[in-house]
Amino acid sequence: MSAEDLKLGGHEDTLALSALAAAIAACGPYITQGGADWKLATGALAGFSGLYMAERFHKRWMHSARAYLPRDQQGRVQTNDKLVSHPGALSANHEDRYLEDALLLGYMTDTGLPYYLPTLGDARPGNDPANPPNDHVFITGMSGVGKTVAASLMMFQQIQKGGGVIFADGKIDSTNIESLWYMLKWCGREDDLVVIHPGDPSFSAKYNPILIGDPDEIASRIMSAVPKAQNSAGADFYRNSGMQAVSALVAALQRGGYAFTPADISLLLLSPTELEKLPNLPGIRGTEEGRVVNLFINRFRVANRNGSGGSIIDVNKVKELFGGIGGRMGLMGSGNFGKVANTTRPDVNLFDCIMQNKVIYLPLPTMGKEETAADFAKMFVGDYRTAVSWIQALPVRLRPNPPTLFFGDEPGSFLSENWDRLFEQARSARQRLMLSPQTKANLDAVALTLFPKLAGNCATKLLFQQGDQETAEWAADLIGMKLGVLRTLTESSQDSASGSSSDIEGTASAGAGTGTSEGARHQEMYRVSPDDLKQLGKGECVVYWSGKTRHHLIVPMIDFSSRFKKWAGSPRIFAPENPRRPRPYTRDYGIYQRLDQVLKADQEYINAQTVKKEKGDKK
Ligand SMILES: Nc1ncnc2c1ncn2[C@@H]1O[C@H](COP(=O)(O)OP(=O)(O)OP(=O)(O)O)[C@@H](O)[C@H]1O
Ligand SMILES: [Mg+2]
């Protein structure tokens, strides 16, 4: 909506404003006559004027955002094929009570009825708020067929309801931030946009994915960057040892109140002098955590063979265990990723954002910096898990309502195999997960079991136009078969002719016959065939819900008028003026700020080791 829209003019506005002016004048000192009539008339005039103006502004607002469906020339909804919908189970009347919480997904092509998806928090009778139904959504379809458009429609409704959204975007589309901004602005929620943008730190909130949580959670986030070695006991052993050691380091830092960043952790893991110092730092020395971390560090120690007694940290042993993790964390702590993540006073923390129903957008620069982006996303998801577990610990009435909508677009780049457990936790923490991979092959690249695992955990599947046979067949198989009747029609014809030339008279005969036979036999057929799924048009999908119902829908697309866009201006992101260091931290570990000193000290430590060793060897 532009300022133009709000300009006053025309006879209706004049009339309404005159009524308001008359009402105000009547309240002034010029009319002294009292009595109920005057009061009544004044009230009526003010009321008329107020209502008219409110309605007028409202109309302008309503018209500045439009939802439209693809239509053909006659103004009908256009579809290639009308697949038969299951008798409506989730189609609902506008009067239905539980619609309050449900999200409109689209319109059924055969009946034109709206189709709503209930949410976890819906008010349907028999719905236990502590154990809500599974309402996770799985969206699949080839590129450019309307997956993001459908998700945007749901996000818009979520924003209108005042709910929170987390949008992790595996394929950056620069218009997504703007779309979210328009949606928020349209709903008067312009303070709720949180953008964590490792590809463009100048337009990003500062966010440290490894600061919040208990030591084990943080350690597993840090270790999620290390690729899992499959079927290798040795590699698994190293992974577990690494995990325990990192957990002990984090526990010690937290005990001392030292806040750390990915760059700090990277440096600490590779610095023998800092590892030596850690158990003796103020706040850590003499504590249980200090003793535990000392034990771990002692594993790296070897006898000092230069005769001076005591022991030293063997740099090679440190490298063996921590080299990989330290390197990955180093990448996370440098460049643009570092500009976003290296902070001990983050602008945002995920738990607070979810509890405040913020709209979080996380574009992942998967092009070019694929591995680091995936690591960042995995840590973000780890942080999300922690937040989810905290929400689970809250009493039901304090959990997000409406449920948070987590949308993972093109999630192949950041999912890991252990995602399935999140679905269960998310459900009771009132988080609706919505994932949209293009094809099965996209997720097979991460792990062969991932696609069926994810699909298996989502009660609702939105199947858009499929571009590849494998996913189309999978989707058709999923919806299942029915016993159909295969009709056959057989036609036959015969001609015959015979003759003999040896007779004087000659004999000849000819015959012809035709026949038709009809048959019918029962045969298993696809309810929705792979070919049906390959032929769906843009914005069309088959929704398969809870293993029971299937509907052919057409999804409306949300668009904002150019006048509204102009009025809404460019996006503004949420960032507090004075971000604070979160609990339990009271000071910064700050090893990265002392980088030069640390590197110098390490070099001296290593030199001393090698020189002394050589001397010791000669003896
Ligand atoms: N329901 C719809 N109504 C009208 N147009 C649509 C609809 N859905 C999609 N489109 C058109 O198709 C374009 C691509 O849609 P969308 O971005 O949702 O594709 P996608 O499936 O998310 O693709 P990708 O996998 O590449 O991200 C939209 O920009 C829009 O122009
Ligand atoms: Mg998309």
Task: Give a brief description.
This protein is an alpha/beta fold and 619 residues long. The protein has helices at residues 3-6, 10-27, 36-64, 147-160, 175-186, 215-223, 233-256, 262-270, 272-277, 288-298, 315-332, 335-341, 350-355, 370-392, 420-428, 440-444, 450-457, 469-479, 530-535, 562-568, 595-618; strands at 65-68, 103-108, 114-117, 137-140, 165-169, 193-195, 258-259, 301-303, 311-313, 359-363, 404-409, 431-436, 460-463, 481-500, 507-526, 540-545, 549-554, 557-560, 587-588. An eleven-stranded mixed β-sheet has the order 3-2-17-16-13-4-12-11-5-10-6, sandwiched between helices. A two-stranded antiparallel sheet has the order 1-18. It has a two-stranded parallel ribbon with strand order 7-19.
